Amino acid sequence: MRHPPPDWAFLLASSDAPAPPPVPMRMRLRAAVHTARALRILQKHGWGPAHRYLQQLRPVPGSERHAALPPLTAIRLARQEILWSQLVRRILAPDGLCLPRSFSLAVYLSALGLPCEVTVARELCANDLEYRFHSWTELHGEVLNDSPVVKQGFRVLQRVSAAAIAAREGGRSSLTAP
């Protein structure tokens, strides 16, 4: 008798949310291409052109279904998709610290139509002079790729998201300071 495969959703922090719709492989590939382009821009030209790429990003065709998800379901989908964005990052920027990691995740999820943003912040009390700044990705105010308490030790300098998604959400602009 065959047993059903285990449902590993209980490992996700927002697993009490309804299961999100599956992401077709074609959408994942298109989002991965956007992520690769964005990481190349970050590596070759720096943060300015890279964050403009994210601001001008348009979601891939078919992303409307993901854009309409309730926040908890969207967060669960985002956590399920972290692996795909990080595979691209590991290939193109294997030694990348928090900014490439957060930026690649934000580009990937934005390409899927989710209203996420890259947060760039400065440490309130700098212990290590080498790492005074930090970056993470947020979706509906939830930190996706770091500890949720990271917001307490940093002052936000900049939040960057895709303008097309931010306008659709009716939320804050694509480049804001607190």
Q: How many distinct beta strands?
A: 5
Spatial order of strands in the largest sheet: 3-2-1-4-5
Major sheet description? 5 strands, antiparallel
pLDDT average, as an integer? 86
The succession of helices and strands, N to C, reads HHHHHEEEEHE
| Rg over CA atoms | 16 Å
Estimated share of beta-strand residues: 15-25%
Structural domain count: 1
Uncertain stretches: 171-178
Specify the structural class: alpha+beta
Q: Number of helix segments?
A: 6
Report how far apart the termini are: 57 Å
Overall morphology: globular
Helix content bin: 40-55%
Describe the structure concisely.
With 178 residues, the protein is an alpha+beta fold. It has one domain.
What report would you give on this structure?
The protein has 178 residues and is of the alpha+beta class. The chain has one domain. 44% of the residues lie in helices and 15% in strands. The protein has six helices and five strands, in the order H-H-H-H-H-E-E-E-E-H-E. A five-stranded antiparallel β-sheet has the order 3-2-1-4-5. A hairpin with a 2-residue loop joins strand 2 (133-139) and strand 3 (142-143). Helix 1 (25-45) packs antiparallel against helix 5 (98-111). The longest helix is centred in the middle third of the chain and has 22 residues, at 71-92. It is globular, with a radius of gyration of 16 Å.
Please give the structural blueprint.
Elements: H1 25-45, H2 47-56, H3 64-67, H4 71-92, H5 98-111, E1 116-123, E2 133-139, E3 142-143, E4 154-161, H6 163-169, E5 175-176
Antiparallel strand pairs: 1-2, 1-4, 2-3, 4-5
Helix pairs in contact: 1-2, 1-4, 1-5, 4-5
